[in-house]
Design a protein that fits this description.
Blueprint: H1 3-23, H2 33-41, E1 73-77, E2 83-84, E3 87-91, E4 95-100, E5 136-140, E6 145-150, E7 160-166
Parallel strand pairs: 1-4, 3-7
Antiparallel strand pairs: 1-2, 4-5, 6-7
Helix pairs in contact: 1-2
């Protein structure tokens, strides 16, 4: 038997024992204390969606609309632990589209780092929610002023950026 078939057979047998252990029935009427740990230690092959955060926290509102095809400004997120461009200027009423080119990033800001009255909150979810390659975040800015933001997991590595919204 080749190695791949052997490993698939072994995994299938482990899954069957694990499932039996979860139900309290290992086929012989006794509980199997090791079956549960096998189940929790087994890797999963669950496919990931680009709109799904890469950590365990799920955002409260995932984007459901299609990103704008012709935004006023595009920003690449995660190319070499940076935002590209790191600074830019737009006018009130214009839209910025952030596009993820690397995994494990988000967009957040500290209090006072954006103009008072803005409705932009950065990426969905908490400060620990991150997204992977293929994710997109966009916003149309109606409040003029200076905006400073960063990627929470990589701010210590200098992954910071800013932009100005003018009247």
């Amino acid at each position: 038997m080749d190695r791949r078939r052997y490993l698939r057979a072994l995994a299938a047998g482990t899954a069957a024992v694990s499932i039996a252990g979860c139900t309290g029935d290992d086929g012989g009427g006794t509980e199997s204390p090791t079956a549960e740990s096998t189940l929790t230690d087994a890797p999963t092959d669950t496919p990931t969606d680009t709109e799904t955060p890469t950590d365990t926290e799920t955002p409260t509102e995932a984007p459901t609309a299609t990103p704008p095809q012709d935004p006023d400004q595009r920003v690449a997120v995660g190319d070499g632990l940076r935002f590209d461009p790191e600074s830019f200027e737009i006018s009130v009423g214009e839209t910025v589209l952030w596009e993820w080119v690397g995994p494990g990033h988000n967009i957040k800001y500290d209090e006072g780092a954006v103009p008072e009255g803005t409705d932009w909150t950065g990426t969905e979810g908490s400060r620990t929610t991150t997204y992977g390659e293929g994710h997109a975040h966009w916003h149309t800015f109606e409040t003029a002023g200076e905006y400073d933001y960063y990627c929470v997991p990589h701010q210590g590595s200098g992954m910071r950026a800013s932009f100005t919204v003018t009247e």
